[in-house]
Design goal:
Length: 207
């Protein structure tokens, strides 16, 4: 364990992987079916889906990485079709930028929740633990910073960034990949942070 329970907080995919398996057992249905029937189809997210293999619908932004090495030397390669199954329940859904834009106000206004549950969702998951601050804290599955709901996923050479400003009703989505000399796995988030400075200069992303 990284720390005794109740003394700090850290993000992990593991809880979502276990939750996905529990939901499948409880419902007798696959996560793919549940996503489609309860989210993607009713919300009109026509270009969002839960893949069953490594294939991605065209057109697609190709991803590149130097994650693997050949005899100790970095090997920069196209990793677009690497199998993402290790990402499991939280990491597998694939979407285009337009559909992620649709998701912004759905998540950011709590459209799928009661007002009480939405307030709980965007509250600090552990208010005074770890690096949480009043202007930047980890909520339930995302960071809230100065009114922005922010996510910065990265998998298999892909880097994405999502931001929804609750006070302004603005959604920003970005996607990027790694250059051969890149020193970060989160290029899209670095761009998002700079864009937000122009969109809401009084409410920057503070992490």
């Amino acid at each position: 364990m990284n720390f005794p329970p109740g003394t700090s907080q850290a993000y992990s995919h593991t809880d979502n992987v276990i939750l996905g398996q529990a939901i499948e057992r409880a419902t007798g249905r696959s996560i793919k079916q549940l996503y489609n029937d309860n989210l993607f189809v009713p919300l009109g997210m026509e270009d969002t889906y839960f893949p069953i293999n490594q294939n991605i619908r065209n057109p697609v932004l190709h991803a590149f990485t130097s994650e693997r090495s050949v005899k100790g030397y970095p090997f920069y390669e196209d990793c677009t079709y690497w199998n993402p199954s290790w990402g499991s329940t939280p990491g597998l859904p694939i979407s285009d930028l337009d559909d992620v834009g649709k998701w912004g106000p759905i998540l950011g206004t709590g459209r799928l929740l009661t007002p009480e549950l939405f307030r709980e969702q965007i509250a600090p998951a552990s208010a005074h633990l770890g690096n949480n601050q009043p202007d930047a804290y980890f909520a339930f599955g995302f960071v809230v910073s100065n009114g922005w709901i922010v996510q910065n996923p990265a998998i298999n050479g892909y880097s994405a960034a999502f931001g929804y400003s609750m006070p302004h009703g603005v959604t920003i989505t970005l996607a990027a990949t790694k250059s051969e000399t890149s020193t970060t796995d989160f290029a899209a988030f670095e761009i998002l942070r700079e864009v937000v400075k122009y969109v809401t200069p009084d409410s920057p992303i503070a992490f």
